[in-house]
Amino acid sequence: MGIALKESGFANHIIGVDRDPDNLDKALRRRLIDEAAPLEVAISRSEVVVLAVPVNAIEDLLPRVLDLIGSQVVLDVGSTKRNILQRIRLHPQRRQYVATHPMAGTEFSGPEAALPGLFSGKCCVFCDVEASSPDAVAVVKWLYEALGMQIVYLGGGEHDVHTAYVSHISHISSFALALTVLKKEEDEKRIFELASGGFGSTVRLAKSSPQMWIPIFEQNRDNVLDVLDEHINTLAQFRSLLIKKDFKTFHQLIEQSNQIKKILP
């Protein structure tokens, strides 16, 4: 985000805050940030504050940040929203905060994983904007438009349901498939030799950081369980068809699944 905001002209100076000095050093050396500073100093010298940390950390950090701001606009990029929004619902500076979720990312983490153009053409969800000031929403809208993102508006609870379907279940499935293959194929060299594009794209998400994803699953547990139950039922249906050798119905289900191309061309 820092790279793109500098390249777009939205930001002319970016201050990085991190409790890990190694991350700050890497970000400075890669010119992802212009300087590093403690949280209080960075907030006092900023106009826009972006919280890009795991969702459990956002839940703890956001109230502290709102305590420190004056006219600054605050946004987060977390993958869950209900708990976070509830946490600051009555905060006196609530209207300076805009809850957002840019639906873009990779399976990699840390300053080394920064990619120019990552957000371009992707979707960003704004949640519960009616609780934010119009001026704050306008600034954050300008920020994401500078990144080349399309904006969608949802309620926080509605957002968490939809992300369980389109994002969170994909990661659980990828983690599970990776574990299944690693248990069955103890010869990792053989997996590497045989793995093609299809397998690689399916398990790509299994490389994702548990420090990021465990808090997401914890905060969106109920929605993820609902989706996971549906997914397990569908897998059980496929298993039953294989047992019965009912490949005609199997064929029909695959044809039904092909309809996803109307949504994801």
Oligomer: single chain
Mean pLDDT: 91
Biggest β-sheet: strands ordered side by side in the sheet: 3-4-5-6-7
Classified in CATH, the superfamily of the largest domain is: NAD(P)-binding Rossmann-like Domain
Apparent shape: globular
CATH class of the largest domain: Alpha Beta
- The helix-and-strand class reads alpha/beta
What is the radius of gyration?
A: 21 Å
How many DSSP helices?
12
Reading the helices and strands in chain order gives: HEHEHEHEHEEHEHHHHHH
Structural domains: how many: 2
Helix content: 40-55%
For the record, give the distance between the C-alpha atoms at the N and C termini, rounded to a whole number: 26 Å
- Largest sheet features: 5 strands, mixed
Q: At CATH's second level, what is the architecture of the largest domain?
A: 3-Layer(aba) Sandwich
CATH topology group of the largest domain: Rossmann fold
Indicate the low-confidence ranges by residue numbers: none
Task: Report on the architecture of this protein.
- The chain has 265 residues and is an alpha/beta fold.
- The chain is 54% helix and 11% strand.
- The strands form 2 sheets. Strands 3-4-5-6-7 form a 5-stranded mixed β-sheet, sandwiched between helices. The protein has a two-stranded parallel sheet with strand order 1-2.
- Strand 3, helix 4 and strand 4 (73-76) form a beta-alpha-beta unit.
